[in-house]
Amino acid sequence: MDAALNTITEEVHKLAKTDDEFLRRRTIDKLRDLQYALETPEETMQRLIYLGLTTASVRIGLDLNIFNKLVDSEHPMKFDELCDATGADPILLGRILRHQSSLGMIDEPAQDTFTASQTTRNISHPDIQAGLKFCADILTPTFLSLPAFLSTHSYQNPTSTDSTPFNTAFSTPLSLWSWLAEHPSHRANFNRFMYAQRSSVKDCFSYLPLDKESEGWPAEKPLFVDVGGGTGQQCVALREKWPELKGRVVLQDLEEVVESVRGEGLEGVEIMAHDFFTAQPVKGAKFYYLRAIMHNHTDEKCIEILKNIKDAMDEESEILLDEIVMPDTKVEWFVTQTDLAMLVQFNATERTEGQWRSLLERAGLKVKGITTYTHAFRLSVIAATK
Ligand SMILES: C[S@@+](CC[C@H](N)C(=O)[O-])C[C@H]1O[C@@H](n2cnc3c(N)ncnc32)[C@H](O)[C@@H]1O
């Protein structure tokens, strides 16, 4: 029996080592289906009812810095060492570690001895940890408010901008953005979460010939405006990819976001506070780039944002929307869950190609092309002109 399991495990590892990203992800999904096919009804119930506890246990592990300690340690750590390092009550810590080990979050190679597992290493990066904190603190309570919210609204697809499941969960009339402005530690986690979300895929600049498209662009004119660009990772990535590009690179976001990078002085990037619901101050840029902005907004709000940019565009300008383009069927779990995360936070949505085309047409823009650059996440750049 063990021999058979070992053979299967080896074969799966060989498959997962493939360069074919699509095959690797299909393997993960197939293994999940296999696991579910083996479960009894009671096991299925046990797995589902404790999903919230997994989130809580990860949060506690982060609060006590258990995962980093195990990753940083050159040897498996003794239970007593972890008690000293965390300051937690030994009986309580034992219970937490047992739970984490039983789910593979950490490994327990011998009695009272713990070490990092693959999951521990995967979640040791600070940006990933910020994402986990944001999800435990903000997203999970918001998800849990969704059933009652939908029932209260008679299961209509919500499109209001001032009554979201987030508003209900946090008893606030503020939008998530305004609320984050008042909660800087959650804001900081959110910003780092944005870095983490796409950290394992190459960004769109590896697939788009923006250098060719902007050949001969005058140095004094704006080349690339990252609208709602967060803390500037894409401006920096653009400069790193093509240091020779001429033209101004501008990072725009809300004041409370860009103020955090002003001191850092991103090389070759102008930093500008700008609310995209107001007129776009940078006129005639070659590229207006918006990554993961439209999916935070209802169609009506997206049209407002797009029209503000359209008014600043000239004949050579393009809008580049870096977003998920959902397939019409068999949508993968990591896309469906992002879609519902947009619903609970903003009453917003991910979109299919048909929905993107219709949205851009309503904003008076023409689709120039759609480049899907990761099939796994269906990340795509939709280019549009006036
Ligand atoms: C999902 S994040 C995407 C950030 C960045 N584009 C990226 O891909 O990492 C959305 C961004 O929109 C910004 N934002 C929200 N409302 C805004 C507004 N009215 N004007 C400008 N930026 C805004 C947020 O501060 C946040 O940085």
Automatic annotation (TrEMBL):
MF-aspect GO terms: O-methyltransferase activity
Start and end residues of each O-methyltransferase C-terminal domain: 164-365
InterPro entries in alphabetical order: COMT-like, COMT_C, SAM-dependent_MTases_sf, WH-like_DNA-bd_sf, WH_DNA-bd_sf
Residues annotated as transmembrane: none
GO biological process: methylation
SUPFAM superfamilies in the cross-refs: S-adenosyl-L-methionine-dependent methyltransferases, Winged helix' DNA-binding domain
UniProt keywords, alphabetically: Methyltransferase, S-adenosyl-L-methionine, Transferase
Name listed for the protein in its UniProt record: O-methyltransferas-like protein
PANTHER family xref list: HYPOTHETICAL O-METHYLTRANSFERASE (EUROFUNG)-RELATED (PTHR43712:SF1), PUTATIVE (AFU_ORTHOLOGUE AFUA_4G14580)-RELATED (PTHR43712)
